[in-house]
């Protein structure tokens, strides 16, 4: 069995390594540039957290461990469904809309374009700002653009405050989750799937979630097996 988890550059790498240490002894003592580990019949690959849903969906790996936010973004962007299960909380953050109070927002900068568009569709007063995809460290860009806002991952809120982003709305909480293609996908023995709650899509996804479900229900057997 192949398990994918976030690599050393990810904020979730340390907490996830603690979760997988029982399956892959010596993981934390391995070479810092080693991106795969093997124990008995199981293999762990370390990669970008944002790539893990795609690796699971294509069958390259059997199980993924990554952020709930990453999986929601992937599913909404592709109208495909994966099965997400809750793991013990290790680093809870919030995908958050933020801007400067009183701004006429015309551009939203984000790592979550699909989440952002789904959230805007659910809010009649959101208008029609353009969505610009960036890849982190966007607070300065948002502050510099007099018509800018963002949808960002926020943990403590300190970076928002330092950059003068004083208006924020949490969209969804996120922490690590376990990802499989189907509900009956196998998983390493360290995970008791029956005891792990299945996570739903966020409520604001609304029509986007329905479209994902419809696409799934009409998919051919090769998509569902």
Structural notes for this entry:
- This protein is an alpha/beta fold and 225 residues long.
- It has two domains: 2-91 and 175-205, 3-Layer(aba) Sandwich (D-Maltodextrin-Binding Protein, domain 2), CATH 3.40.190.10; 93-173, Periplasmic binding protein-like II (D-Maltodextrin-Binding Protein, domain 2).
- It is built from eight helices and eleven strands.
- The strands form two sheets. It has a six-stranded mixed sheet with strand order 2-3-1-4-11-5. It has a five-stranded mixed sheet with strand order 8-7-9-6-10.
- It is elongated, with a radius of gyration of 18 Å.
- The two termini are 17 Å apart.
Annotated CATH architecture of the largest domain: 3-Layer(aba) Sandwich
- Return Rg in Å: 18 Å
Q: How many individual helices?
A: 8
Distance between termini? 17 Å
| Physical arrangement of strands within the biggest beta sheet | 2-3-1-4-11-5
Average pLDDT, rounded to a whole number, is 84
Q: Count the beta strands.
A: 11
What is the domain total for the residues?
A: 2
CATH domain class name of the largest domain:
Alpha Beta
Strand percentage: 25-35%
The ordered string of helix (H) and strand (E) elements is: EHEEHEHEEEHEHEHEEHH
Please tell me what the overall shape is: elongated
Helicity level = 25-40%
């Amino acid at each position: 069995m192949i398990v994918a988890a976030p690599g050393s550059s990810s904020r979730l790498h340390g907490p996830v390594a603690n979760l997988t240490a029982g399956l892959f002894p010596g993981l934390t003592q391995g070479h810092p540039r080693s991106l795969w580990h093997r124990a008995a019949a199981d293999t762990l690959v370390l990669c970008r957290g944002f790539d893990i849903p795609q690796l699971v969906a294509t069958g390259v790996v059997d199980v993924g461990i990554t952020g709930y936010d990453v999986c929601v973004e992937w599913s909404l962007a592709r109208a495909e469904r994966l099965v997400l299960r809750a793991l013990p909380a290790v680093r809870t953050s919030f995908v958050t809309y933020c801007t400067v109070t009183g701004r006429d927002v015309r551009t939203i900068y984000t790592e979550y374009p699909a989440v952002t568009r789904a959230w805007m569709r659910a809010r009649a007063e959101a208008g029609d700002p353009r969505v610009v995809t960036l890849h982190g460290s966007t607070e300065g860009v948002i502050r510099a653009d007099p018509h800018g806002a963002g949808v960002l991952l926020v943990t403590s809120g300190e970076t928002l405050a330092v950059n003068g982003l004083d208006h924020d709305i949490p969209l969804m909480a996120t922490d690590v989750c376990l990802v499989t293609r189907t509900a009956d996908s196998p998983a390493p023995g360290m995970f008791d799937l029956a005891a792990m709650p299945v996570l739903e899509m966020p409520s604001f996804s609304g029509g986007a979630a329905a479209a994902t479900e419809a696409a799934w229900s009409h998919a051919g057997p090769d998509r569902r097996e």
